[in-house]
Design brief:
- The complex is a heterodimer.
- Helix content of chain A is about 35%, strand content about 25%.
- By secondary structure, chain A is of the alpha+beta class.
- Chain A is globular and about 85 Å long.
- The model of chain A has no long low-confidence stretch (mean pLDDT about 95).
- Chain B is an alpha/beta fold.
- Chain B has one domain: Class I glutamine amidotransferase (GATase) domain (Rossmann fold, 3-Layer(aba) Sandwich).
- The longest helix of chain B has 13 residues, at about 220-230.
- The chains are: A alpha+beta, B alpha/beta.
């Protein structure tokens, strides 16, 4: 490649506005060179600079006594006791996965794993949150298969279990799928590493795979809408090599353990550019690189390409001179390249040389501090009020049997068993998974302690579309409720904010509403946001996805032996419903699936009540008083009861008694802050008293046992089905949908 | 002393170490794949699961060229005990320590789940000596290439010398096609060599060695060999 001249056309091609270009000229005091233009273009892309979101992200709570590192580093860190810390983050790989699902998803996993072990932590568990269009569309079948195999291919090979996640299918994702991947690692509290290029004169070492031409401008692609030419962007997608990453992981952890590393950052999005400039920026030092020393796998690469390549499985390390040889020996042992490519400077400049000739010279901190920040206009969509109206009098209630509706809900890909997916993920490697995928939260023990980590990822984007604020509150509360249902105390959040084009005021309105919702819920639950990712421009030809602020929460279970699951454990236990059921059908899966209606308002929710619910669940479980706990969400009480029955094929007789509410709202309404629990007959009184004392409603609604799920209400038998028959629908629907041309 | 071999890409090495050292409480150490000598105090070598060298080629096809394999081969010839689990089993096949080969799973997908296997010829190897003949145990599998294949002559040999140790079965012990997760011939999940000192198995006993993991059916395998070594 030859270096072109800087023209207006070229500036535009780099996604820079005339105003942004003006800023570059004023920072440099001259016209940028080609490599410099490339550096600014990627660093000021939406993906790297958060220019549309930064102003609003500042509102999120980030502190708590247990937070060791909040947003701004490679990942967030919380104290989990016993001298240990949990390091976690979630990140999106939406755009690349739509174009090349296997590599897009695989490199998403690779990227998040590097963010975790860069901090010195050993990755111990992954989750993912996936959104596809309808699986009746052959391209989405292809995307589904590719994304799942990509996650499996990378995670299984590197030996980090994928322990849970969620999948939703909706036409709003037909042009933009979402692939959000989460990882958590564990590190000794006094052995956390940061992405800082400290110490004037220290060496900069490049380690890992060689640099190729793949993924150049990947972050720029992730900062634009798709048009008709999405498939033309395949060369922007990176290629993953999990084996090399496994070697890199072991080599880095070994070098860290021996105290040989001063600072470290992975070369992910925007590659060498972001790692070098961010490390210099954080440490307020400078970095000087000689690019001719970078190991290359393609011929004829120029500085611009080397700086912008997003080749995977690469790390940038800062090392003291006397430790250089020892460090390189470790990488040699693992058959990896590790070469000195530069040094830390003291004057704040990022200097990039090519065979001794200057290719870029930029004040490093200015790249981030002087990045544009936009207060983009926002506007409530004109049709929002209309969208929020729902006249239930026109929706026929269930008067006889809800069996068919229940069967339909259990077959919906958003609710149906995802076993066929997680069977492709090694979810047991490391022998820590004590609650496997399929329950509310996954639970992994922490070897060497009595503790376990519980984690869940969640977002109901239909709720967010109907009301971004309420939807976001629900996302936080439900993720936390899932964690609490396993007996663990939710401690902190990582978020992945997936939205459309922020230059549209309606999308900004959704974004700001969601941020407010996350903020309020996180404050109430005392779960600060310690890391995250923003993915905007999830639009194709002007159609945006539903706002999807995906929330992942990590909690600590003090006694791993007490991990609670959602499944009924024995016949004769008392079934109780905590929380109040209201006539809330707006935005429900039931209305969408059985009546084709997607409107109204999501259920009301009070995060303080939610907090009280979590506290009482955790307390009761710690005392060994609960046999099962399952949160009521999509599909309402009936689906919750059915799923509780599936684990050990234990049925239940439930009677909801007299009620002024519609029968379908009782069965399938999604009123928030509700949990279905079971307890032995002897313990039921104590449980009931504790819940009442916590200020929450609780009702004894039935008993476990038999092989039938029967739900009565208002003197009618609304549900009466053999558990095995329901389970068979639940277990096989996703596979049927993927294999046949059946609309699911 | 148990030794767990670490190939680049091994990822069940720490799990096996944990099962030996912390679950059954026996001494254990790691052996790097570039090592060439197996010390005298080592009585049992474990080839753990994982993706040695990435397994971009046939699983185990590159690991067999690791220096340690020569040492393991000599160790086995001298009667040392060797167990290969999952990728370890694949490596034993590739290096000729056990007969046969692995094909891709018949569904062409990676499968991670609990399966039932029936223990047969349990007295053939000290690894299974404490299981009762015909006992059905539950163990996890996690592989993409576990579809055991061998020619008819080899299968006959395996049968004649009682070398088939584990077969996939249903919970009642029926060895059926429905209970076969990957298409393996005769539902074979594990075999030994003629002498009975080398065992290869696709299921992961180390993942089923503790009550907290919901399953301890695999622990007896480690205990069994440990007791045998100590008795010897």
């Amino acid at each position: 490649m030859k270096e072109p001249l800087i023209t207006e056309e070229l500036i535009k091609e780099h996604g820079l506005t005339p105003d942004e270009y003006g800023r570059i000229v004023s920072i440099l005091g001259r016209t940028p060179m080609f490599t410099e233009l490339g550096i600014f273009s990627v660093m000021w892309s939406e993906h790297c600079s958060y220019k549309s979101s930064r102003l609003h992200l500042k509102k999120l709570p980030v502190d708590a006594p247990w937070v060791i590192q909040g947003p701004g580093e490679n990942a967030g860190v919380i104290d989990i006791g016993d001298g240990l810390a949990a390091v976690f983050k979630m990140e999106s790989h939406n755009h690349p996965s739509y174009i090349e699902p296997y590599e897009g998803a695989a490199t998403g996993v690779g990227g998040i794993l590097r963010d975790i072990f860069t901090m010195g932590a050993r990755p111990v568990a992954s989750l993912n949150s996936l959104r596809f269009g309808p699986l009746s569309d052959p391209y989405h079948k292809h995307l589904f298969g590719g994304v799942v195999s990509g996650i499996a291919g990378y995670g299984n090979c590197i030996g980090v279990p994928t322990v849970g996640g969620e999948i939703y299918c909706h036409p709003c994702y037909a042009g933009n799928i979402l692939v959000n991947v989460f990882n958590v690692g564990i590190v000794k509290k006094d052995k956390i590493f940061y992405g800082k290029a400290s110490g004037d004169g220290n060496l900069i070492i490049y380690a890992g795979s060689k640099t190729g031409k793949d993924g150049i401008h990947g972050v720029t692609m992730a900062s634009e809408e798709f048009t008709d030419d999405a498939q033309q962007k395949k060369p922007n997608v990176q290629i993953g090599d999990p084996f090399t990453e496994k070697l890199l992981l072991e080599a880095c952890l070994e070098a860290m353990d021996k105290g040989l590393i001063v600072g470290i950052q992975d070369m992910g999005g925007a590659g060498l550019t972001s790692s070098s400039s961010e490390m210099a920026g954080r440490a307020e030092t400078g970095v000087e690189l000689e690019l001719s020393l970078v190991p290359l796998r393609a011929e004829g690469m120029i500085p611009y390409e080397i700086m912008l390549s997003e080749s995977q499985e690469r790390m940038l390390l800062v090392v003291e001179r006397e430790n250089k040889d020892a460090l390189i020996d470790i990488f040699k042992k693992w058959d990896l390249d590790a070469v000195v490519i530069g040094k830390v400077g003291g004057d704040g400049f990022l200097r990039v040389n090519w065979h001794g000739k200057m290719a870029a010279e930029i004040p490093a901190t200015k790249i981030s501090t002087d990045a544009p920040i936009y207060d983009r206009p926002s506007k409530r969509p004109t049709n929002q009020d209309e969208l929020n109206t729902l006249d239930l009098s026109k929706v026929p209630d269930i008067t006889n049997s809800g069996n068919d509706a229940l069967k339909k809900l259990l077959a919906s890909p958003s609710i149906a068993s995802k076993e066929l997916v997680w069977q492709q993920y090694d979810h047991m490697v490391r022998t820590d998974t004590i609650v496997r995928p399929g329950s509310d939260a996954a639970v992994v023990r922490v070897k060497g302690t009595k503790k376990a980590l519980a984690m869940s990822v969640d977002c109901n984007s239909r709720y967010c579309w109907l009301d971004p604020y309420l939807g976001a509150v629900h996302a936080v509360c439900e993720a936390a409720r899932n964690v609490a249902c396993s007996g663990a105390l939710p401690l902190a959040v990582t978020d992945n904010l997936n939205f459309g084009n922020p230059e549209k005021p309606e999308v900004m309105w959704q974004f700001i509403g969601a941020i407010e919702g996350i903020k309020d819920a996180c404050i109430a639950l005392n779960t600060p946001v310690i890391s995250g990712n923003v993915s905007l421009y999830n639009e194709t030809k002007g159609d945006a996805i539903f706002p999807t602020p995906t929330i992942a929460i990590v909690g600590v279970l003090e006694d791993a032996d007490r991990a609670l699951t959602q499944w009924f454990k024995a016949a004769g236990d008392v079934v109780m419903l905590i929380g109040q059921t209201k006539e809330e059908l707006g935005g429900s899966e039931y209305l969408s699936l059985c009546h084709g209606i997607e409107r109204g308002l999501p259920p009301t929710i009070d995060p303080l009540k939610e907090k009280a619910l979590h506290s009482v669940l955790i307390k009761l479980n710690a005392q060994g008083l609960l046999k099962s706990a399952h949160d009521c969400s999509e599909g309402g009480l009936a689906v919750t009861a059915a799923e509780s029955a599936f684990g050990f094929l234990i049925g239940a007789e439930i009677d909801l008694g007299a009620s002024s509410l519609r029968a379908d709202a009782l069965l399938f309404g999604e009123s928030a802050t509700r949990v279905l629990i079971s307890a032995t007959a002897e313990n039921a009184d104590i449980v009931e008293a504790a819940v009442v004392a916590a200020g929450l409603p609780i009702a004894r609604i039935g008993k476990t046992g038999g092989d039938i799920l029967r739900i009565k209400a208002k003197d009618m038998t609304l549900i009466e089905m053999p558990v095995s028959e329901l389970k068979s629908i639940y277990d096989t629907s996703l596979e049927r949908g993927l294999n046949q041309n059946e609309h699911i | 002393m148990f030794a767990i071999v670490v190939f680049p890409g091994s990822n069940c090495d720490h799990d096996c170490y944990h099962a030996v050292k912390h679950v059954i409480g026996r001494p254990a150490r790691f052996l790097w794949h570039k090592e060439t000598v197996i010390d005298k105090d080592i009585k049992c070598v474990v080839l753990p699961g994982g993706f040695s060298h990435g397994d971009y080629l046939r699983a185990g096809a590159l690991a067999r060229f690791s220096p340690i394999i020569k040492a393991v081969t000599d160790f086995a010839k001298d009667g040392g005990f060797v167990v290969g689990i999952c990728n370890g089993f694949q490596i034993l096949l590739e290096s000729g320590l056990l007969p046969g080969a692995m094909l891709r799973n018949r569904a062409l997908k990676f499968i991670c789940k609990d399966v039932f296997v029936r223990a047969a010829n349990v007295k053939k190897t000290p690894f299974t000596a404490t299981y009762t003949e015909g006992r059905v145990i539950r163990l996890p599998i996690a592989h993409a290439e576990g579809n055991y294949y061998a020619d008819a002559g080899t299968i006959d040999e395996l049968k004649t010398h009682n070398q088939i140790i584990f077969n996939y079965c249903d919970k009642d012990g029926n060895i059926s096609d429905e209970a076969n997760p990957n298409g393996a011939l005769l539902n074979i999940a594990g075999i030994s060599n003629k002498q009975g000192n080398v065992l290869g198995m696709m299921p992961h006993p180390e993942r089923a060695s503790e009550e907290i993991l919901g399953n301890s059916d695999g622990r007896a395998l480690f205990q069994s060999i440990a007791q045998h070594i100590e008795g010897a």
